[in-house]
Amino acid sequence: MYAQPREDISWLLICEVAQMRTVQLPADLCSLVEKRYGSAFGSLEELLIFVLKDLANDDAVKADQAERQIIEERLKDLGYL
User: Fold this and answer.
1) 43-70 pLDDT, tens per residue?
2) Which helix (H) or strand (E) holds 64?
3) Using CA atoms, how far apart are residues 39 and 61, in angstroms rounded to an integer?
């Protein structure tokens, strides 16, 4: 997964309207992430929103399952399964 350009933060504006929750994270982990990805995101919160939204996206999981099914069918056709 790569950083989303800071210019396109429309997804963040939607989140600003929604109710927010507080999460506690280790300070050293936060510092490391801010150093590595700080230039791509305006804040640690923006990065975490992006990551969590990506994880919540079912499309990637569905694509993986579809690919697996295709591979299994090919292997069955070839007599391996």
Assistant:
1) 899 999 888 888 777 777 777 788 888 9
2) helix 58-77
3) 29
User: What single-letter DSSP state applies at residue 20?
Assistant: -
C-alpha to C-alpha distance for 81 and 77, rounded to whole angstroms? 8
| Residue carrying the six token digits 């690919």 | 67
* CA–CA distance, 23 with 25 (Å, rounded to integer): 6
In terms of residues, how long is the chain?
81
Q: Tokens at residue 22, please?
A: 């507080």
Tell me the C-alpha distance between 59 and 57, whole Å: 6
12 neighbors 47 (Cβ within 8 angstroms): no
| Domain locations in the chain as residue ranges | 10-77
Residue type at position 33: V
